[in-house]
Target: NAD-dependent epimerase/dehydratase domain-containing protein
Amino acid sequence: MSVLISGATGFIAQHIVNDLLKQNYKVIGTVRSQEKADKLKKQFGNNPNLTLELVADIAAPNAFDHVLEKHGADVKVVLHTASPFFVNSTEYEKDLLTPAVNGTKSILESIKKYAADSVERVVVTSSFAAMLNLEKNGDESVVYTEESWNPATWESCQVNGTSAYCGSKKLAEAAAWEFLRENRQAVKFQLSTVNPVYVFGPQLFDEDVKDTLNTSCEFINALIHNKPEAKQMQEFRAFYIDVRDVSKAHLIAFQKKEAIGKRLLLTNGQFAYQDLEDIVNEDFPQLKGKILVGNPGSGKEAYKTMDSIDNTKTREILGYPFRSLKETVDDTAAQILKKDGNL
Model:
């Protein structure tokens, strides 16, 4: 059985590809360049079950047509992970909104054209950002669930990079559900989404540890390397999940019938930046005196003025325990220190 995954070189996507190959699926991944394709092929040991196709710009009209035209008859599952994830932008439409929304619409349109009868399940990698109401951020009376929606509109979210990113995730996910409603008679696939909070955890391949990491893991990387931004994040607090748990959820999202039509809200709880400092200082003594210490043990105080999340429904569908903050931070930090020659 073949699974198509867009954005196959992404942080989360690489873990998904790895899990799919371990379960003997044939995987067709899309990447942005031949250089990325060659690197990923090599990293996966030229596995014959991994085929890569080039999609240079997911926002371009008919971006995925050639992929589905070529492979559509064999593809039973489509995992759409490709979407921009950064907040330091002032070109909100060009960098965030248009690629996120058009990329989602484009891959679904290509399924409709070339694989309407073969694709049975589609999983869109969305985000907690699609559920978050930024205007109520930090309101301790707010409890988010799988039914929560970010109220952003195309116009309202173009205030700053953060609101534009959150808006892009909401609008892209909403576009997927709307597409299915409008095309229910034309396609056979069932839809699920995976909505993770901040995703920590190791890169799948050690060689992908760079000076600057993906947005979530950079919190830990900045702390270890005592970057100025670590001090600026001292008051930061949010929710976390491990990348390996996010990957596993993508497979269950298409393997279990209970996940059909569901939004899987992935979090294993709250964290404050102080918690990251405490874990790294305690578990990596070689960093003692070189990194921020903050006010040890004070992280839990920050939770008292946070909104909260109830993802009971998601946990029941998935049926596996999530990794602890300590495990995910330790594994992320250990890989970074190994690359530095400090472990």
Summary: The domain at 2-201+243-267+308-320 is CATH 3.40.50.720 (Rossmann fold). The mean pLDDT is 94. The longest strand covers residues 190-196.
